[in-house]
Structure prediction request, 439 residues.
Amino acid sequence: MVLSLIGRVARDHPFKFGCAFSCAKTSFSDWLVQTYIERRERIDWKRNMTFASFGMVYLGGVQYALYVPLFGRLFPNAASYAAKPLTAKLADAAGTRSMVAQVLLDQFVHHPFLYFPCFYSLKEVVNGGQILDGLRKYAKNSKEDLVALWKLWVPSTIINFAFMPMHLRIPWVATTSLFWTCILSYMRGSDDVPAELVPDVSEDVSGNQGRALSELLDWRVATKPAYAYDPSKSHMLVSATGRDRIGFVAQLSRQLRGIQCNVLDAKMYKVGLDFVTVMLIECDPSNSAEAVRILTSQEDMSVNILPTDPTRGTSSEPDVAFMAEIHLQGADEPGVLEKLCVELADMSLDITALSCHQAVLTVPGKQDPEKRFTITGMVRAFSPRDINAIRNQLEAFEPMWRIGIVEVDPNPNVSAFSEHLTKLNRKLARKDSTTQQST
Prediction:
């Protein structure tokens, strides 16, 4: 009953239905992004309404004008071809050529020269920039964006122009887009990576899904959240090097778990025949000596242990007023890490964590594979800083790098743990109160 009513409204009022459907879909998509990817506590309704308006005006209105009246005039048999059964379509060579021509016009003319310039301009304005800056970013990202677009949307567009009635072309695009937004929101929402670490990925999920999906499947960028360190525990930084052998980490983890030690953080990799690992281990102070004995008794491994207190800085440090997570990608070359660290030092930013990785990837538009770097890390400052000014300075310093930076709360480990203890104490207090009332 409901579906038949919706179908009748879409058939009788295709333009109004397409605009309303696209508006609602884009608003819901941005809500998904803000809730499950950016994990905002409060929805930015101004941004949401901006993208909803873009959905109504462009995705609903402009695309309707292209797909229905314009394509209907350019390809008079488009509607009759879509209504034919599959066997009749296969026998209709002229109709198939007409369908393919529509796909080519949409994917190779409309999107490169109209949709993406509008989308990048809007995204830049929403984030406080200028339209011209958005067009520059599109010019820089266009090859990657278009290849990612075609992988995702050419198959969907073929289905749309081959099988959908004219009045359902816009609802099909909006439904497909919403479907991918849900998938990407789930994939990003189940990860520990803040979405802002991948440049512009939040808006890309709802408006540039090819790029967002490519980021997830190709780059596999991942960082970890801050830990809520327990100040009542002992902590040790452990580094171990030696000849690689199967089962070393499993054996060490089992032995540490046997004395109630917890590996909070671990990074490891193999170089040739050798194995390297760095671990942050947490244990009860009474088990520290036994943990040291276990760690130093590993066969064929050189082990170094440094007691540490991750909940505090040095007493001489001033209060931290600014912290941010950074993510950079680009073509690798000698001196990349040096250039970045010198630039951060010139901006009086202190590096508290940094991870650098090189990969050889096939880059769209280039015949030979290219060495690419990925750097993720955490920086801080001891005076208030403007996140946009830092981002602009980094982009101006190296325009060919893809840069993402997001501000986080200073000293997140301590504040997160304090918040956890507060919630736990409240829960215990309620439990005690309930117990007393019951007795």
In short: The radius of gyration is 27 Å. The chain is about 55% helix and 20% strand. The chain has a mean pLDDT of 78.
